[in-house]
Design brief:
A: Formate dehydrogenase/DMSO reductase fold; B: alpha+beta; Alpha-Beta Plaits; 2 domains; elongated
Chain lengths: ~300, ~280
């Protein structure tokens, strides 16, 4: 694999990955809050933390790919450029995410609320959630459209890529939240809190099961469209399916990123069918999370590489 | 400046002898350093354009249809598009086109995001670590502004290239193509989303067969962006399935809620009856 020939390599792949995960985390938190209020507070908290940190890592990855990051103020100059749009969204979402975090301080630091008098207002929090939902949708869409707007690379020039990144972005975000919730599991000793956490983990498990299925549908339709599309796009698809990128595609993305987590999520959902919500297997959840995150990153790298190498 | 003053540059590849004088002239005038290259089977050297090589001659050896082979030498450089994708995607507005059609770069504004490198259908732009900017052929603007020809045009011993206004160059290219029963590339009329270029090629075979991009790859960014609006079958299938999954989840949720309510009602009825 001629990785040295890639203009956009793993740093841009990580920018797209963190952008998708950041947008997805805010969407997950906003949707969870809208559907269930404060019931699953852990999802809101981890959504806020992961969203903000991911958006920062997205900026960091993007800025690390250039020797002149000090010229970043120029990035707001061209409203017709998708990168100007993305930069604007990131500049909005990071302070908004930090503001959202002030509503949800960690349980171990309850006195932090004293510094943020607005944090007790649910109405204010809901308004921030609506704004974060819109910004999250914009950020996650941006990661697909920034590639889709490039006509010179027919492998990227389709709305299906945005759909794929959307499914993958929300899936990685939900599983990152699942990872931290599962990490918390052994530390919770109070019976009622434990029961609540197990219910949270089950919800995350089922939600991500659906998201992985949607991702499988998206990648299948995307590759079918490319295989039967323009010759250059078909060449890119062939690089993934049967060319030099096939091991990373089938082994890294399809097996580790989709098949293993789907099996683990089904297993976990099946164990939870009794709806007793007494036990959970945090280890399995953490393994599934790591697999989904690795798959999300590998998929973005593969899309970038296949588009450029064909 | 009126349309008639736009520069035009004709490259007739049927006349090229592959001497690479243009490559050398470009290197000398633009002070581009040499670069280490590798031997390649088709004799193209260097194998592709780079930040150090702004113009090159690509060698193509193809069957002539009579049992033999035919060499074609294709000079490559920036096409100075009518609607340059590099310019429209640049977030820093570091890329601009002069009224005479010459596409240039503000080196001190380039952020280095490489979006223009990715977006150029001709693979012309490359990032230069010394200039801290993407660089490429400037149509020797410092020469043409002083009434001289671009260095490569001046150096060509086979008179492969002609320089003038775009209007007259397009006419000449079409007449030449008609005479040799050949093809013209880049002569599309200037309009807001034209895929035309200021560098016009004449060839005896379609340029797409000599490594040039297809029409879909050349469409300007605005049009490419609009084509992202979902309109195809795969998007419809995906959208329909996702909508069906969401509806199923909501329906199941409503059913569970209803069952729970009924159970509560039965419990309370039982409790009332026993009292």
């Amino acid at each position: 694999m001629a990785a040295e020939n890639l203009t956009w390599g793993w740093l841009i792949a990580s920018a797209l990955f963190f952008g998708g995960m950041g947008g997805g985390a805010f969407i997950t938190a906003a949707v969870a809050s809208y559907l269930t209020g404060d019931r699953f507070k852990e999802i809101l908290k981890f959504g806020a933390y992961i969203g903000t940190v991911s958006a920062l890592l997205c900026v960091l990855s993007f800025a690390s790919d250039t020797p002149t990051p000090e010229r970043s103020p120029f990035l707001y100059s061209n409203p017709n450029s998708m990168i100007t749009f993305g930069t604007t969204v990131l500049t909005t979402i990071i302070p908004l995410g930090i503001f959202y975090v002030t509503f949800l301080p960690p349980d171990s630091l309850p006195w932090l609320r004293l510094f943020f008098p607005w944090s007790r207002s649910n109405k204010a929090r809901n308004i921030v959630e609506i704004l974060l939902f819109l910004a999250g949708v914009s950020l996650i869409s941006y990661t697909g459209i920034v590639l889709g707007a490039v006509a010179a690379k027919p492998f990227w020039s389709t709305p299906m890529l945005t759909a794929l990144f959307f499914a993958s972005g929300t899936s990685t975000a939900v599983m990152a939240i699942g990872f931290f919730a599962a990490f918390l599991y052994p530390q919770v000793t109070l019976e009622s809190s434990k029961k609540m956490l197990v219910e949270t983990l089950h919800r995350i498990d089922v939600a991500d099961g659906y998201l992985v299925l949607i991702e499988i549908l998206a990648i299948t339709l995307y590759l079918l469209e490319m295989i039967y599309g323009p010759p250059v796009a078909a060449n890119s698809a062939a690089l993934l399916i049967s060319g030099p990128l096939r091991f990373l595609f089938w082994g890294g993305f399809v097996f580790i990123g989709l098949a293993i987590p789907l099996l683990l999520l089904i297993l976990l959902a099946w164990r939870g069918r009794a709806r007793t919500f007494i036990r959970f297997y945090p280890g399995l959840m953490m393994v599934a999370s790591v697999c989904v995150l690795a798959g999300g990153f590998i998929m973005r790298y593969l899309v970038l590489a296949a588009g450029q190498l064909a | 400046m009126s349309m008639a003053k736009e520069r035009g540059w004709l490259i007739d590849i049927t006349k090229c002898i592959g001497c690479r004088s243009c490559q050398v002239a470009c290197k000398r005038w633009n002070e581009r350093p040499s670069e280490k290259t590798e031997f390649s089977a088709d004799w193209t050297n260097p194998p592709k354009l780079s930040s150090k090589t702004w113009t090159m001659v690509a060698f193509h050896l193809d069957p002539d249809g009579k049992g033999g082979n035919k060499w074609r030498f294709v000079k490559r450089q920036c096409m100075h598009c009518l609607n340059p994708p590099c310019e429209s995607v640049c977030p820093a507005k570091a890329i601009y086109t002069r009224p005479d059609g010459v596409n240039l770069t503000h080196y001190d504004r380039c952020f280095g995001c490489h979006y223009c490198v990715i977006s150029c259908p001709y693979g012309v732009r490359h990032y230069d670590l010394d200039a801290k900017s993407t660089v490429k052929c400037t149509m020797c603007f410092d020469r043409i502004d002083n009434g001289k020809l671009p260095a490569c045009v001046q150096a060509c011993p086979a008179l492969v290239m002609e320089f003038g206004t775009r209007e007259e160059i397009v006419q000449k290219a079409r007449a030449r193509a008609k005479a040799i029963r050949g093809y013209v590339f880049g002569d599309e009329d200037p309009r807001p989303e034209s895929i035309g270029t200021h560098v016009i090629y004449v060839s005896d075979v379609p340029l797409e067969k000599l490594g040039f991009p297809t029409t879909e790859q050349r469409i300007p960014t605005g049009q490419a962006f609009r084509s992202l609006l979902p309109s195809r079958l795969t998007e419809a299938v995906f959208g329909g399935t996702v909508a069906a999954v969401v509806c199923f989840i909501l329906w199941r949720r409503a059913r569970l809620e209803k069952a729970k309510m009924e159970a509560v009602a039965r419990e309370s009825e039982k409790a009332g009856g026993s009292e």
